[in-house]
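Running log. JK asked me to keep both predictions on one page so they can be read side by side. First protein, sequence followed by its tokens:
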Amino acid sequence: MADRMDERVRDVTIVVGGEAGQGIQTIEFILTRVLKRSGYHVFATKEYMSRIRGGSNSTLIRVGSQRVPANVDRIDLLVPLDSGALTHLAGRISKDTLIIGEKKALKTEHNCVDIPFAAMAEEAGGKIYANTVAIGFLCGILEADLAILENYLKEYFGRKGKEIVARNVQAAGTGYRAGGEMRSAGRVAFSIDRDPSVAGNLLVSGAEAVSLGAISGGCRFISSYPMSPGTAILTYLSRHSEKFGIVAEQAEDEIAAVNMAVGASYAGARAMVTTSGGGFALMEEGVSLAGITETPLVIHLGQRPGPATGMATRTEQADLDLALYAGHGEFPRIIYAPGRTEDAFVLTHRAFNMADRYQVPVFVLTDQYFLDSYYSTSSLGDDAVFNEDHVIETDESYMRYRLTEDGISPRGVPGFGTGLVAVDSHEHTEEGHITEEIGVRNAMMDKRMGKIRAILADSVPPVLTGPEDYRVLVVGWGSNFHIIAEAVQLLRKDDISCLHFSQVFPLPPDTAELLDRAEVTVVVENNFGGQFARLLRAHTGFEAGHRILQYDGRPFCSELLARKILKIARRN
């Protein structure tokens, strides 16, 4: 196997590569679920070009005897579906990479185990079953349960009729036997123990975790104009809208989408929008509208590389500044950036409660890597599900913007009570009438901005992984949680810890104290300018000593990141 910094980690990394349209995602979808049901921990992530067919894409599947939730660079088993995959992945192929495929079709000089997938598929009824043969072959190598594979194929292809099911089962069985024979011949040098408890685990993508968090948070309205990767949330909630009583609206553009959501929230529905950077740029005026009208709004922003269209299907963490400073004028906001599926569920749920409690826009900031990756987890934190109700029944004396000590006015909605719920996009009096009077303007600004004190006291603290008496502290946020944590684990140093922020604004009160305890600090981000490092400096005065920045549209790899961290630690 490939060189590893910690041989105690027993896992294997499979990469399947080929053109869009060759069924790579089908292989990923079926294989991950069969392996999970067979008792293996799994993680899967993908990288793909912005095109319907052609190009060169790949999916990575890690299979382990313990949780393996992070991206890595190494390839243990490579299944190239065309010769282009070998070129595309050349920089990651090592002498230890086992390449499995049809050598004649691949036309490669690499050391390749020649497996005639197409010929084996023909036996089952045609070349169309080659991917199923490959799935069976990989299951045979990994010693997955054949009965589980067959049952899942029946479940997956059941709608297509008995003949299609039978042919896929036959193709998978042919591949499974070939994989088992290869293993028996000693041509595979790894062993992964099963964990029986994994079979009952959840296998969810980041997008599904955000969506489930929205459902549990009482989301009743979502509007969006499609833009990857944020569209995955709209798609999921649309699919389940009738079951959970959600109105899902594909708007004509992002301006309409955000204004629809503000209107729905004004009417009393818990509302959200989902978009990506280019789409959110059009929503900024609507966010300001929510700010001055003090209307709860949840905004899911799935990041991808810019500027403009940039790389539409790649990943980046470069929209933190956009979320932080979006909208004209000053008004409070909250920004969450989940790093685990558990966080995505709980924080999206929390976003709806916080939006209602403080009557502010709340961002859930993710990225393509997180949204498109599948994670195996035992729980999403179901015990945390509790929805608050902050809407009051109004009477004739009701004033929507009543001045209060904590800055939070009682919130009424039209039709619930006898009061008039007047809101206005202009500066306004307590009753909601337009004004330019100096004293009222100052009082209203103080009222709105005063909420920050309560929000700070209600913060989500950062998560420290590693010893508390650290010398070196690796700081990250958002989707890099597992990558950084595994990188630090691989180093096996008792003076290096990692600190992950899932609430990036406002920064939790203990931020400065945790940073000041370190002799050496390293901030890890997927952007060019070190946006989170700048935020730390602006709001705490702390200047991070080192930054590891990556902005090529790809996620970090844990073992490569570990080497960069070690290099910094040794120099300091």
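And the second, directly underneath as requested:
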Amino acid sequence: MESYLTHQHYDLVTPDGRITQIGALFDRKKRLATVKIDEISPAFIGYEIDAKLITFNLKSVLAQLGLNAVCKEFHFERKFDAAYVKVELQGIGALGVAMLELLEVGSYIGKLFAADDRRRVRDPDYLMRMFGRSDRKGRPLLSLGGFEGSGALILEKIEGRTVAFIALLEGVMTYDLSVYGFLPTLAQVLKKNMSHARELLHLHQHWEKEVPRIIKPNEILLVRTAPLHIRTVYGHVVHSLLPQGIYHTTADFLQPDTTASGDIYELFGSSEQIIDDIPLEFYTLEPHREHVFFSDRDQLLASLEEPKSLFEAFATAPEPRNLLASVFVVKGTQMKSLKPTDWITRELLKHEFPGLSHPARQAQVVEKYIEHQPAYPFLKAIEDGLITSQGILLSRHFPTPLLKRMLLNDLVQRCLKRIYFQYPSCSYGGYFSHEDRAMLVDLAKFGIPVYWVDDLSGKILQYVLKPEKDAGLFVPLPLVETFRKATFFGMYGSNLQEGHFETQLMQLLEGTLEMRAHMNHPLLSSDTPLALLTGGGPGAMEMGNRVAKSIGILSCANIVDFRAKDKSVVNEQKQNPYIDAKMTYRLDRLVERQAEFYLDIPIFLPGGIGTDFEYTLEEVRRKTGSCPPNPVLLFGEPDYWRRKITSRFQLNRETGTIKGSEWVSNCFYCIQTAQQGLWVLSHFFKGTLRIGKEGPIYDEGFYSFNAQKDAWSLHNS
């Protein structure tokens, strides 16, 4: 899989071949030669298509001097990544014959091209959308005579393929006599296979604008078009569409790195007709090198909307499951035809990091760790310009945060449009680390969407930040906008028991939904969806998620890894089955998880130590102003909550340790029925609830309806 991520490789062509045998001149203008081509990529398309579609492409510098090459036969030696080609070299005109005589063993003269019919451009729109677009260096992807293209380029669909008729400029290209002195130097340049030979040859060429473009027998005719730039396709002269009696040399393919050098064409034959244009057909590059925009990949975008196609794609990743595996996908057909061999895989290796006290060693180990990741070759190829099409990264496990530097690189960001993963961690299964969540936030802010192809729910979940918060959840795709707009209720309580509040909770939430029609509050209006967030475990949490699902509001969970551990005194809490959206945490980040609930309306049920901590945190949030003084509902009998809360509140008040913060007590409301809870919420959303710094102080640390003789008049006073 990694073989194509090299600078040298294009899968439709071989490297240049050199002459290993060459015969004497015969017929005064021909020589037979054997050309050997080495280091052919295993991915060369010519290995798998009909041999009739494979041609020998002569170097254009030779064609411009008047040489042509006719391929007689070829054969591959795949064991040695080599090919042998027998070609008949023909000299056209005196200059061509002179160059032909100078060719010798060791001269690099051309390569094989695989004209794979599957890669022929058929729809003109494929090319038209390239006009006006550029690569990362600002070079046009396709242009003729200017960045935006030109009227000189005419696209037609002929016999199921797109053909561009490129208008020729007035005049022809000629040589001065000094070119003969350059030929021996050029012969040596060919033996070294040095670049820029064409640029050197251009020093001896002259443009004669007044000379008509008419071919004379036994002479080469060099004609020009406006400067042609192609970076997304191969161009190929369509010989069958040239006027009768006119032929193009076998230097007839334009490479995708063509800039302005593709403006000279070499014609020969015999005709009294003036030639007006050059017909070109086109062949696509490998999908990852096409410079194609993600938004243009209709088939890929459609596949990504179907969960089944993503689960099937991940099913092609090599086993076992703890094997690290990644693949970069740029095309719908590529995703549908993924094979295990398409994935880059790595064994999970444990590294001992020296730590920040040894910065040099730490940096060295980190670099080795990064390079070992299966996503690294793809990200590096994007950085190096070997992958130019925009696409998605499929990774069996969420990428290590140590790749953040590469993932947020501006070059990678231009190509990497989405990340899909199946498992948060190779070592911890479904639970994210603190560093993972930090990277999720960064990716979201840098505009790289992340998706969890979740086996547990059978759904595709997108990571979505909570508005104005540096935390988020993985949300089912159809519910993303609901999540972003929702007012969040939250359920705290025991993981050991549900309590007897399910009916009241359901009535409370249903009543709030009905209340929306009469409210115009930032947290509640006619178009405000509701969501319920719990810890995702059993007991009260399961009851809350079950109620949310039953009444059709978004059911969410912040799930902690409570799996049994040595010396653990925590009950193992399995994820309940009523969750839509979720985030997961490892146990060492329990406090951080709690801080990321960010509830608008918390609801407490009776619970233990965890519930006590959660209650205190909601108090602290209101005291410090990290959240507004919204009401907190306490389901249960007043005596239960007195025993939980009152003595602590009163002691703090008596000792002066909460001086100035006693008002926090007016944020907590003990209720036994949904009607009481709806009364609190109704007055809060109307702005008539006495809550916050200017509100009353309740001696018990919370407000209890049963503790007052006239609760309604108290709150309306």
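Observation for JK regarding the second prediction: The mean pLDDT is 91.
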